[in-house]
Amino acid sequence: MKVGIVGIGHGKFGNRSDATVQELAFEPFKEAIEDTNNLRREDIEALIVGSVPEYHMQRSLPGVVAEYVGMNPKSTWLTEAACASGSAAIRTAYMAIKSGVHDIVAVIGVQKMRELSTEEILALMGRVGDVQWESIFGTTFPGYYALYANRHMYEFGTTKEQMALVAVKNHFYGSMNPYAFFQKQVTKEKVLGSDEVAFPVNVFDCCANADGAACVILTNEKHAKKFNDTPIWIEGIGSASSQMSLLRRPNLVEIPSAVEAAKQAYKQAGVKPSDISVADVHDCFTIAEIMAYENLGFCDRGKGGKFIEEKQSYIDGKTPVNVDGGLKAKGHPVGATGVSMTTEIVKQIRGEAGKRQVSDAEIGLTHNVGGIGQYTFVHILRR
Amino acid sequence: MPFKYFGKINFTPYTKVEKFSEYLHKGKLMGSKCKKCGETYFPPRADCLKCMDDKFEWVEYSGKGTLHSFTTIHAAPKGFEDIVPYTLGIVDLKEGGRLISWIGDIPQKEIKIGMSVKVVPRIFEEIPEIKLYYTIEKP
């Protein structure tokens, strides 16, 4: 029996020093229930929270979220896979429904990152690399992606200009997204002229740490039509891992877990990369989006730079990518990101994306990468 | 020589490969070799990834290699602010395996992916406690 999405909700991403983490979680949860046809909160059997616990002062997040959104005494737990925690939670919900343990499950992806300083976050995230052999030299997240970027440039001739064009595109679409942290366009010159964080990665090549939450409600084929006239089905659900340490990876020009997860998802859904109408990919850094084009098969390996240069990932291009602004413009509340991507793809397939609508969007894809590629979840959604 | 002395900040004081730091203190860069199947590892592993055997011996690495990639860090994590900017390199070691470390004496403009380099065991001399590490230098 198929699993589909019958409700979506999205809170404002950004600097949310106005709210606690559970208050952030409440916003999209309420919106997702209201997005369904008459689903009552009591109908939801379990609440899965996608989040990375170490950013919060509050320990054991599902407890406080379940209480605040009014889910007690229903089942609740946390799913963690670094920056892919949101998609990992959706996968957990999919499995719970598919197995018959639960019929109706809510997933809240939530993160409040700005309780910590940038230096603390850099240290925390740097330790998503191997701490025994790598972090002791002061590795950082932008640093890891810079290592990918330099190697990609060396092997394929990718340029800083091409990386900057990813930022230009995503801020262009982000300027039309009311949920985005940054709603202003940027020029290529501005990106290239911004401060260097980790050569060749500039500040404007990086997504921003943000606070925010998003929610989806999932159910099986038996109940879906009752709660939504247009349920959006999860047709492919790929998941894979790569080595924690870059030192043990086969190469530094692709994310092996992304290649593998995409392969699984395409096979399950019975579709090809060229069938994808619209995609939300994990652009934590501009080079990450370039690698995503390649790893998902939107273009050949090494041709990701050219793909953006030719504007193939714009709405009028071959495969529109991150037309909600991506992590780049929306900000990256790590646990919320995968769920946010899913709400965007649901909106696109329903035809509710407004100014950012891709015409005749039928099949959509989310690509959510955890850590520096240790985990990737690729989901294919369809009307 | 406990493993806690390895690194500017050490996050893993206890490991089955703690002798690594003892060798490093003596100026030797060591990897591990599975006694059963002969697979070698750098960074060293106590347990073989291939055959899952848990008996290994130490093998010395020459430190020779080629630069696989690099970056210069300007925004440092907590505990590394005092040394910014610093350049990190990943080296493909001649005997197999890779390591990451600071690039030592090579001027920024001369750093090129694919160049030959050597890895040199070092001790932080600026600080009173023993802190072991290695740098990437010209061969």
Number of helices of chain B: 1
CATH superfamily of the domain at 3-116 and 209-227 in chain A: Thiolase/Chalcone synthase
CATH architectural label of the domain at 3-116 and 209-227 in chain A = 3-Layer(aba) Sandwich
Domain unit count of chain B? 1
Residue windows where pLDDT falls under 50 for at least 5 positions of chain B = none
Nearest-angstrom radius of gyration of chain A? 19 Å
Note the overall shape of chain B.
globular
Q: Report the oligomer.
A: heterodimer
Helical fraction of chain B equals under 10%
Question: Which residue ranges of chain A are poorly predicted, with pLDDT under 50 across at least 5 consecutive positions?
Answer: none
Count the E strands of chain B: 8
Q: What does this protein structure show overall?
A:
The complex is a heterodimer of chains A (383) and B (139). In chain A, helix 3 packs across helix 13 (334-350) and helix 6 packs across helix 10 (286-295). Chain A is globular. Chain A has 13 helices and eleven strands. Chain A has a domain at 3-116 and 209-227: 3-Layer(aba) Sandwich (Peroxisomal Thiolase, Chain A, domain 1), CATH 3.40.47.10. Chain A is an alpha/beta fold. Chain B has one helix and eight strands; from the N terminus they run H-E-E-E-E-E-E-E-E. Chain B has one helix spanning 19-25; strands at 29-34, 40-41, 56-61, 64-73, 86-93, 98-103, 116-123, 132-137. In chain B, strand 7 (116-123) and strand 8 (132-137) form a beta hairpin. The longest helix of chain B has 7 residues, at 19-25. The chains are: A alpha/beta (383), B mainly beta (139).
